[in-house]
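Dear support,

I submitted the protein below through the web form. The confirmation email said the job was done, but the results page showed an empty box. After a refresh the structure appeared. I'm attaching both so you can tell me whether what I see now is the final result or a partial one.
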Amino acid sequence: MVAVEQALPSASQLAARIMRGGRVLACPVDEGLLLVIGAGEPMAGALVAEINDDVAIRVTASIIGWRLALPSASCTHGFAALLQMKDTDRPLTTFRLGEDNKRYIFAPRSIPVSDAAALLAELAGEQLGGLIDWVVDGLMQGPMGSPGLAAIIALLQSRKGGNGFVELVGETHDGAIFVKGWGRIEPGVCRVVVNGGKPVVCDCGIAAFLRDDVPAGGAGFVGLLSTKEPLRVRDIEGIIYRGRGGWRYAPVHEHRQIAGPSETPGHIRSVLLQTRSSPQVLLQLRSAANSFEGRETVSSLPVPVRMGIDSAFEAAGGAFLISGWLLDPEAHVQSVKLCGQRAAVPLHDRWTRLERADVTDAFTDEPMFRSAFGYAIHSHGFIAFAGGLGWDAAAPLHLELTLKDSRRAFMPLAPTRVPPRLAALRQISSIDPANWGLAEIVDRQIVPFLCASEAPAPRVGTIVDAGAFEQADGPPIVIAAEDSEEGDMAPFLGLLALDPETRSAPIALVLPAERFRRHAGRIREFAQFYRLSLRLISAEESGDLYDLLETGIRVISHETVVLLAGSLLPNRAGWYSKLVAAHKAHGGIISPTLAYEDHSVRWAGTWPVGQSEYPSGGRYAGYPLSAVMALKLTQVAAASFECCIMPREAFLRAGGFSGCYLGSQQKGLDLGLRLSRAGMPSYWLPSVQMLGADETPGAAAAPLLERIDRRIFAARWAPAPEGESNWLEEVPA
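What the results page shows now:
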């Protein structure tokens, strides 16, 4: 026990040490900030201090002095000095101060802030309040880290007296935190320190109101804490404020009430009419009282403004595509925002408006709107892309309408979370192809939405081995059976079995989940009949051919893979060994010639075109196969992933296929160029040919989808060509 007392001397013992004169105690407050406490003659103001008898360590110290509670003949006044210096944890030996260069000796060890507070209380007596205020004022002058803020909290917690309590803490959808309680606080905007898991300094708008149940000099208060740093209401332990009579600490009451974002506005409204403060603070509180409470309030507006949402899609990465209508014939609405947790994105300055005569018809007979319609204006519809809210699947979302008279109304939003490709296709299918605004919708909404979205990697479903897949030799053939039915697979598997090379090779057949469930059993019987080393893979939520191929690549673990679209058929046997041999000799990615069923060339390499960054695949398109079969292996700008051999690891490092495209052509070209820029060469092998047709989307909007993909590709790889602003005019209705 004696050892403990010597290690941790009491405040009286510390005071006795410095009262002997010539001694000072050091208290590191923050990195680069030191508090020095001593006793001697009266002194105050800014004085030059020298540390460790080193003229290189001379700083200006801010000094406050006071008459000691128990003065002696040699020491009548105490002093505290705040000084900025580097390395406050360095050994401290001497301290010279003032014009007379009076020399003090540092105690061997520094003391923590809690001991410094007790020492000041011992030395200052009734003058402690003013002394603590001076120290805190000095600390609050500059930027403070967590240790400095913790020091302020420790100093003020040592102050006796009724300084108030925080009785209610509430969250808001705007990110501010509402506090309610009582204290000796002045209304207005002030800086406060919030004591919590990590102390922070923030601005607080305070309003006061009368309360009969608090000590004399106290009043009720409400405030809005605004900070850029994330702050959880359950972590708040108290607030430090500068009120009447100096700095005060108001702890959170043990029986505090915590309100969620939907309950907080009601708590603000219940007291708002009783409060007094500056106009700025009262406006902030009034706005917070009129915040989102989890319910729709647009329909209750007493002005002719109504709103509806037709669809709202959310893709990974925080990209939103929202369509609906806003009926505002008298132009009362000033802004429309999409709001999430601590963030908001304006829609009114980026959306595309559409004609919606059906909305006009629906409200024509309502008294409030009857006199508002005129001039046959029906542009009530809108489609909007919004991004920048971040990705938080659990965060509630809502639309906020602000009227020109500052009133606000809200509409909860529950977006459907779907892959970006599916969201774009659904939105496009809902638009009349003859709509005059289609070009702007695509350019300003659909394309930016797809570019900003993050498509998740295809999800693997069931895996079934129908043969000795792992024991087979050679690179596995990953086959994407996108549109195959049970009957289509029998001849295809038969062709693989007729070629001795592919009959003994490992084959990974990837099907969409629905087709897998319907036909996996029968396909497995075919594979066993033909004695193929087949692995059947189900791809969940696959969008196209390349999603299926990526699923197969991610499932297997071989170093090299051969990719093959299920719609392609080899022109001759032996294609597999030729691709493997060329890859062993040259590395990189190697694709064969792709031809139509009439033996005319469909793809024979992707080639750069002049200075354009957009390569072309049409150099030999339409030529007979006989014109290119004798050509040698040739390096090209990008391979075709409908059929190729490539290193699996290179595919994974590149991140796989981009999910923002609606079709396959630019999707494959995009990956090919990424691999090329990463140093992976691509080759065309003319002596191997595959027969099949182009990608033939059945939708009537196929030309539109192709042009959207070109727009996305141009945004990712090259500036849009001059004069392309009217590119959509070529799309037939």
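Response: this is the final, complete result; the empty box was a page-load delay. Confidence is low (pLDDT under 50) at residues 1-7, 723-733.
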